[in-house]
C-alpha cells in the first residue's frame, strides 16, 4: 500500500522522537553507573601493574576501591618533573581524573603527567613502586597502559596494557598476562644512566632474559608491538625528569 | 452476550502448537541462519575465541531479535512501506544501543571486549532478514517465536564454535583450565599443547566449516 508523503514524514518524525527519548533517557539513567564502572576499571588497571590479574579479578568492586585507597597515593607532574597542584583554571588537580587521551593531543611540554605511588598500607612514606601511565597508538586505534617501577626507579615491577581495537588473537595479546609478564625485571636505563626503555623485538619465541632492554615480540602483530615500543619510549622519556629528580631526592613543587 | 461472542470466535491456536514449535525448531538445524543461510558469519568468527563473551553475544542477539521482531510486528500495519527498511534499522539500532549501554553499566569487562561486535549486531543479516521476511507480515506472538528460534539457531552454532576454539586454543572451557587438569592426571612431564591457530579467526573458519560439513552430511542439504 502506498501512503501519502505527509503520513511518511509524520511517521518518521514520531519514530525519531520516541527512539531519541528512549535512548537519551537510558543514557541519562545509566550514566552515573557507567562512570563508576569506568573509574573502577581504571583503578583495576593501575593496580594490575603491581599485582596479578587473577587476584584482582577475585576481588569485589568495593574491595578494589578500598584496597586502592589504602595503597595508592597520586600526584600530577609536568614535563620537568615538577609537581603541579592546580590546572589552568586554578582548580585542584586529581591524578585519577587527568584524562591521558586528551593530554596526548597536546604537545608533550604542555601535558599533565599523573604519577601513582604504590605504598605500604597506611604509610605513604614506605613506597613500594611508582606507577606511570603510558599512552600511544596501536595498529587500529589507541593503546594505553601502566608501568610500575621498583624503588630503584629503573627495574620494571610489572606492566598492564590495554587497547581499544587491536586484532583479537594478534595485537590484542598485549592484554594477556604472559605477554605482560615478559616485562617484569627489565630495566629502563642503561648502564651509562641513559634512558633506553624496553623494546619488543620482531618475531616470537626467542629468549631475551639476558638483555634487560629487550623482550620477546608478538608474532603477527609487529605494528602493535612497535606501537607499544613507541608508547613506552615516549612516555618514559616524558617522565624522565621526574624520575631523575626523584632519584636525587629533589622534587620541588612547581609554582603556578 | 458473552457466550455469543465466544461462539463466534475461532478456537484460538494452542500456545505452542505444532506450527509454532516449528517456528522455533526450524532455524536450529534445517534452516539454520549460520550453517544453511550462511548469515551472521562476521560475528561468528570474531567473538568466538572464548565461551564467556560468546554467551553474552548470544544473549544480546536473542534479546535484540525478539524485541525487534515484536516491535516491528506490532507496528507492521502502520509502517509506510517506502521507508520500512529505515524504520527497521532505526529500531534495531536503538535496541543494540540499549544493550551496549546496559553492558557498559553492569558488565564493563564484557563491554570492553564486545562493544565493537555488539554494535555490529545492527548489520547482522539475521536480524534484518527476519524482520523483513517475517515480522512485517505476521502477528506479534508468532514473530517473537520466529525471532527467538533464529537467534537460538545462531547462538548454539557460535557457542559450539567457541567451545572448540577455547578448548583447543586456550585449553579451557568458560575459563576453567581443562587442559591443565587433564595433563596433571598423566604426571609432571605430560602437558597438552594448545593450538594457536584456533585463537585466530582462521580457527573459526575451520570449525565452522566442519560443523557445516557434518550437518549437511546428516541432513542431506545441497545448495542449488
TrEMBL record, chain A:
One Pfam family, short name:
FMN_bind
This protein's source sits in the domain of life called Bacteria
The membrane-spanning stretches of this chain are 6-26
Report the InterPro entries cross-referenced here. FMN-bd, NqrC
Q: Tell me where in this chain the FMN-binding domain is found.
A: 138-239
GO process terms (BP):
sodium ion transport
Q: Which GO terms describe its molecular function?
A: FMN binding; oxidoreductase activity, acting on NAD(P)H, quinone or similar compound as acceptor
Required cofactor(s): FMN
Write down the top EC class of this protein: translocase
Q: Which Gene Ontology cellular component terms are annotated? A: plasma membrane
* Catalytic reaction list: a ubiquinone + n Na(+)(in) + NADH + H(+) = a ubiquinol + n Na(+)(out) + NAD(+)
- PTM-bearing positions, type FMN phosphoryl threonine: 222
Q: Which NCBIfam families match?
A: nqrC
Any idea what job this protein has? Answer: NQR complex catalyzes the reduction of ubiquinone-1 to ubiquinol by two successive reactions, coupled with the transport of Na(+) ions from the cytoplasm to the periplasm. NqrA to NqrE are probably involved in the second step, the conversion of ubisemiquinone to ubiquinol.
Spell out the family assignment given in the record's similarity comment. Answer: Belongs to the NqrC family.
Subunit description = Composed of six subunits; NqrA, NqrB, NqrC, NqrD, NqrE and NqrF.
Q: What is this protein called?
A: Na(+)-translocating NADH-quinone reductase subunit C
Which organism was this protein described from? Litoribacter ruber
This protein's gene is called nqrC
Automatic annotation (TrEMBL), chain B:
Q: Name one Pfam family in it.
A: Rnf-Nqr
Identify its protein family. Answer: Belongs to the NqrDE/RnfAE family.
Tell where it localizes: Cell membrane; Endomembrane system
Q: Does the keyword Lyase apply?
A: no
Transmembrane stretches, start-end = 55-74, 86-108, 114-131, 192-214
Swiss-Prot/TrEMBL GO biological process terms: sodium ion transport
**Entry's Gene Ontology molecular function annotations:** oxidoreductase activity, acting on NAD(P)H, quinone or similar compound as acceptor
Its EC number(s): 7.2.1.1
Q: In terms of domain of life, where is this protein from?
A: Bacteria
**Subunit structure as annotated in this protein's UniProt entry:** Composed of six subunits; NqrA, NqrB, NqrC, NqrD, NqrE and NqrF.
Which topology term describes how it sits in the membrane?
Multi-pass membrane protein
Q: Do you know which InterPro entries this protein is assigned to?
A: NqrD (IPR011292), NqrDE/RnfAE (IPR003667)
Any one of the GO CC terms: plasma membrane
EC class: translocase
Function text: NQR complex catalyzes the reduction of ubiquinone-1 to ubiquinol by two successive reactions, coupled with the transport of Na(+) ions from the cytoplasm to the periplasm. NqrA to NqrE are probably involved in the second step, the conversion of ubisemiquinone to ubiquinol.
Q: Which residues form a coiled coil?
A: none
Could you tell me what reaction this enzyme catalyses?
A: a ubiquinone + n Na(+)(in) + NADH + H(+) = a ubiquinol + n Na(+)(out) + NAD(+)
Which keywords belong to this entry? Cell inner membrane, Cell membrane, Ion transport, Membrane, NAD, Sodium, Sodium transport, Translocase, Transmembrane, Transmembrane helix, Transport, Ubiquinone
Q: Which HAMAP family match?
A: NqrD
The name on file for this protein is Na(+)-translocating NADH-quinone reductase subunit D
Checking PANTHER family in the record gives:
ELECTRON TRANSPORT COMPLEX PROTEIN RNFE, NA(+)-TRANSLOCATING NADH-QUINONE REDUCTASE SUBUNIT D
Its principal location?
Answer: membrane
Amino acid at each position: 500500500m502506498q501512503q501519502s508523503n505527509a503520513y511518511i514524514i509524520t511517521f518518521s518524525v514520531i519514530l525519531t522522537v520516541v527512539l531519541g527519548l528512549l535512548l537519551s533517557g537510558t543514557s541519562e539513567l545509566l550514566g552515573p553507573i557507567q562512570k563508576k564502572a569506568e573509574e573502577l576499571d581504571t583503578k583495576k588497571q593501575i593496580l594490575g601493574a603491581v599485582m596479578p590479574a587473577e587476584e584482582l579479578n577475585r576481588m569485589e568492586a568495593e574491595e578494589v576501591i578500598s584496597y586502592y585507597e589504602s595503597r595508592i597515593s597520586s600526584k600530577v607532574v609536568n614535563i620537568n618533573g615538577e609537581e603541579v597542584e592546580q590546572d589552568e583554571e586554578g582548580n585542584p588537580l586529581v591524578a585519577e581524573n587527568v584524562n591521558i587521551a586528551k593530554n596526548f593531543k597536546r604537545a608533550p611540554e604542555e601535558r599533565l603527567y599523573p604519577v601513582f605511588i604504590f605504598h605500604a598500607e597506611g604509610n605513604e612514606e614506605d613506597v613500594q613502586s611508582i606507577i606511570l601511565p603510558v599512552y600511544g597508538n596501536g595498529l587500529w586505534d589507541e593503546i594505553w597502559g601502566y608501568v610500575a617501577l621498583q624503588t630503584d626507579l629503573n627495574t620494571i615491577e610489572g606492566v598492564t596494557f590495554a587497547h581499544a581495537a587491536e586484532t583479537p588473537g594478534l595485537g590484542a595479546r598485549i592484554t594477556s598476562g604472559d605477554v605482560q609478564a615478559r616485562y617484569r625485571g627489565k630495566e629502563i636505563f642503561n648502564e651509562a644512566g641513559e634512558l633506553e626503555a624496553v623494546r619488543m623485538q620482531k618475531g616470537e619465541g626467542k629468549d631475551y632474559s639476558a638483555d634487560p632492554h629487550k623482550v620477546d615480540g608478538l608474532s603477527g602483530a609487529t605494528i602493535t608491538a612497535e606501537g607499544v615500543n613507541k608508547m613506552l619510549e615516549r612516555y618514559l622519556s616524558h617522565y624522565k625528569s621526574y624520575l631523575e629528580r626523584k632519584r636525587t631526592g629533589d622534587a620541588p613543587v612547581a609554582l603556578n | 452476550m458473552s457466550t455469543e461472542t465466544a461462539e463466534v470466535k475461532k478456537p484460538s491456536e494452542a500456545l505452542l502448537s505444532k506450527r509454532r514449535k516449528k517456528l522455533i525448531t526450524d532455524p536450529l538445524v534445517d534452516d539454520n541462519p549460520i550453517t544453511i543461510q550462511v548469515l551472521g558469519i562476521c560475528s561468528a568468527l570474531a567473538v568466538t575465541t572464548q565461551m564467556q563473551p560468546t554467551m553474552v553475544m548470544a544473549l544480546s542477539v536473542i534479546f535484540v531479535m525478539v524485541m525487534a521482531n515484536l516491535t516491528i510486528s506490532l507496528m507492521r500495519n502502520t509502517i509506510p512501506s517506502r521507508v520500512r527498511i529505515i524504520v527497521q534499522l532505526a529500531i534495531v539500532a536503538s535496541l543494540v544501543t540499549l544493550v551496549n549501554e546496559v553492558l557498559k553499566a553492569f558488565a564493563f569487562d564484557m563491554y570492553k571486549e564486545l562493544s565493537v561486535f555488539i554494535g555490529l549486531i545492527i548489520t547482522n543479516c539475521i536480524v534484518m532478514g527476519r524482520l523483513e521476511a517475517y515480522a512485517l507480515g505476521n502477528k506479534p506472538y508468532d514473530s517473537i517465536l520466529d525471532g527467538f528460534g533464529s537467534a537460538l539457531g545462531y547462538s548454539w552454532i557460535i557457542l559450539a564454535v567457541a567451545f572448540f576454539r577455547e578448548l583447543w586454543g586456550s585449553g579451557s572451557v568458560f575459563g576453567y583450565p581443562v587442559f591443565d587438569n587433564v595433563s596433571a592426571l598423566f604426571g609432571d612431564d605430560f602437558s597438552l599443547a594448545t593450538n594457536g591457530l584456533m585463537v585466530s579467526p582462521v580457527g573459526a573458519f575451520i570449525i565452522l566449516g566442519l560443523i557445516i560439513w557434518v550437518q549437511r552430511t546428516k541432513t542431506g542439504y545441497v545448495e542449488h
